[in-house]
Specification:
heterodimer; A: alpha/beta; six-stranded mixed β-sheet; four-stranded antiparallel β-sheet; 12 strands; 25% strand; globular; B: mainly alpha; 15 helices
């Protein structure tokens, strides 16, 4: 099938470094999940559930401990880094400080996996950069230094940079963590549109539970105890998985409205 | 990013209306191309000035005739030009270019505006080599004196022995840093390891100097002041070939260095082999800085200040533009410091490190103040 298919994937931290041999930590094991092309898939779960570890493994930033991952039918984990960079675009949480680069300079960095040793951009590369900047509606920002952009504008540029890699899979690790509410809504809406328009497989982790459930086509829910439940947002809400993961003594998830309600008899 | 910072090398130079020669510069408005042309012209001008000024000021006509071997020969001045002034100017330009470019490499690698090639410990290593060979020389001399010999053989192998010892010391420390870099999990850890290593080696050097006699310590201190006048004409090809090779290697690193600007993780997701690039950058930076240090002694501040001046000149961090700009700025600043170190018409010599520190410190301070105003966004 097209899209992303995880089969029995185990992620975590292998013993690494000179002074810490023999200490491996498995974060998630035996994960089975799918994310389709043209769909927005959200990865949900409390802090420490393993969202970042899973995404970093898919992005090739850390090795998988077991299992397999297929992207459009091919083995994603076996790809060499430059080949993977042409298939997978990544947006991270952190706010990079690249010095004196304009927005367009940053988007052009997305062409690194496509250019030769000299890094010189050809007409096709320029076109891909233009397309990526237009896709995130960032034309007017492109000429400004990245350091002068707001957090929301900057994150849009980082999305454009990932798009310029012309990937089929877009991975985003809490891309809205530093953004205000308006920018969060705009970014998630943008990602949903990009998935549709460019037939991308978009997988992002987020803490914006209610917004994500409303916009996503599919959700992967990590329960914080090593388990994962997948399905459409409606399915997850109906089967009570979301409530099980996020309900507190005071708040309870209401599948009907897709929002959290004050638990009857609590506080007040 | 416009405006003149203190110590800007091309201050007062009006941008010449030369069209942008290549497309990357065209895209960034031609400013980079103009800056590169101005920097190149400034380097040539300062080279000529370095050759013609010094304790004796030599006119341009006289200089040219000495260089080209035409016109009436004046053996004394001709010798001064060909054997002293030209080697000094070439050395100053090469040293500035090499240290500045090595500084750019370390600043990008460590993503730290205060990083310089000497944080890799190469100057400390070179210093240890020199301290060892000077103290060994003293010990050998003392032994010779005790057995009725003539004694006072200052350094075994003379100047070449000193250069060789510095190079070996720098190379050994580089090897140690590379070994440790295999285990360092981040660039920051590596940076701090380099600093710690430098401190430890400097401590050993201090111990050697305390245990030796004052004359030897004096010799080491003179080396530590830095000089571009000590390189003989016959040594220039060695220095030139190594520095030119290193600078060419840096140009090949331009693409992965751009990738590193967004951080190691983003570089990896763009297909950059971060571990291999880090190794390449470390080796090239250390060879450039170590070679210059072996020949000229440790020259402070050029490695920090020159890349910042180059960024101000071209207004971008893109390495395809910034690398040549840094190399040219380094040559310009190196030559300017050499001129100041040998004031025209005065017999006295100002130690090179005094000049570079007085030029470099204000530049670094200005950069720090400026980058704070921009929220750390622009170096």
């Amino acid at each position: 099938m097209t899209g992303l298919v995880l089969s029995g994937l185990t992620v975590g931290y292998r013993a690494e470094g000179a002074l810490r041999r023999g200490r491996a930590a498995t974060v998630l094991s035996g994960v089975d999940a799918v994310a389709g092309r043209g769909e927005l898939t959200v990865l949900l779960g409390p802090n420490g559930a393993g969202k970042s570890t899973l995404l970093r493994t898919l992005a090739g930033l850390q090795p998988a401990l077991g299992g397999s991952v297929a992207l459009d039918g091919g083995d994603l984990l076996a790809l060499r880094a430059p080949d993977r960079a042409r298939r997978v675009g990544v947006v991270l949480t952190d706010r990079p400080d690249p010095g004196l680069l304009t927005g367009r300079d940053v988007v052009e960095l997305g062409r690194l996996p496509h250019t030769g040793a000299g890094g010189v951009l050809g007409p096709a590369d320029d076109a891909a950069v233009d397309t990526a900047i237009d896709a995130v509606r960032a034309g007017p920002l492109a000429g400004r230094p990245l350091a002068r952009l707001s957090d929301g504008e900057r994150q849009r540029m980082m999305v454009a940079r990932a798009l310029a890699q012309q990937p089929s899979l877009l991975l985003l690790d809490e891309p809205s963590a530093f953004l205000d509410v308006a920018a969060r809504v705009a970014l998630l809406g943008l990602l949903r549109r990009l998935a549709r328009e460019q037939d991308l497989c978009v997988l992002l982790s987020t803490h914006d539970l209610e917004l994500a459930l409303r916009l996503a086509d599919r959700a992967w829910l990590l329960d914080g105890a090593g388990g994962i439940v997948t399905g459409t947002p409606d399915e997850l809400a109906a089967c009570g998985a979301i409530g099980a993961a996020f309900d507190t003594d005071e708040l309870v998830f209401d599948p009907g409205s897709g929002t959290f309600l004050l638990r009857a008899g609590a506080g007040a | 990013m416009t405006g003149a910072a203190p110590g800007r090398p091309v201050a007062g130079a009006t941008p010449s209306p030369v069209p942008a020669p290549h497309r990357s510069a065209q895209r960034s408005g031609g400013r980079a191309a103009v800056a590169l042309v101005v920097l190149g012209a400034a380097a040539l001008l300062l080279f000529a000035l370095t050759v013609s000024t010094g304790s004796v000021v030599i006119g341009p006509a006289r200089t040219l005739s000495a260089l080209l071997g035409v016109g009436s020969p004046d053996p004394r001045l001709d010798l001064l030009v060909t054997d002293l002034r030209v080697p000094r100017a070439v050395t100053a330009a090469l040293a500035g270019a090499a240290l500045g470019t090595a500084g750019l490499l370390t600043q990008t690698l460590f993503r730290n505006p205060l990083a310089e090639p000497y944080v890799l410990g190469v100057s400390a290593g070179a210093g240890l080599g020199v301290a060892l060979i000077t103290t060994l020389g003293t010990a050998a001399g003392a032994a010779a004196f005790a057995t009725g010999g003539l004694g006072a053989a200052p350094v075994p192998g003379g100047r070449l022995g000193m250069v060789g010892a510095a190079a070996i010391g720098a190379a050994l420390v580089l090897g140690l840093v590379l070994l440790l870099s295999r285990f360092a999990r981040s660039a920051t850890a590596l940076l701090l390891i380099g600093v710690m290593l430098g401190s430890a080696i400097t401590a050993v050097v201090s111990l050697l100097l305390v245990w030796t006699d004052p004359d030897t310590a004096q010799q080491y201190l003179m080396w530590g002041l830095g000089s571009v006048s000590g390189v003989a004409r016959s040594e220039l090809p060695v220095l030139g070939v190594i520095v030119a090779g290193g600078l060419l290697a840096v140009l090949l690193l331009a693409k992965p260095l751009d990738g590193l600007l967004l951080g190691d993780d983003y570089a990896r997701t763009a297909g950059v082999d971060v571990a291999r690039v880090r190794l390449g950058v470390l080796v090239v930076a250390a060879v450039l800085a170590g070679t210059v240090t072996a020949f000229c002694g440790p020259i402070g501040f050029l490695g920090i200040a020159v890349p910042h001046l180059a960024r101000i000149a071209v207004g971008t961090s893109r390495h395809r533009v910034l690398i040549p700009a840094t190399t040219l700025t380094g040559a310009v600043v190196g030559l300017a410091c050499a001129i100041v170190a040998h004031p025209p018409g005065v017999g006295a010599v100002v130690p090179l490190n005094v000049v570079t520190s007085l030029v470099g410190a204000p530049v670094v301070i200005a950069v720090l103040l400026r980058s704070r105003r921009l929220g750390g966004g622009a170096w």
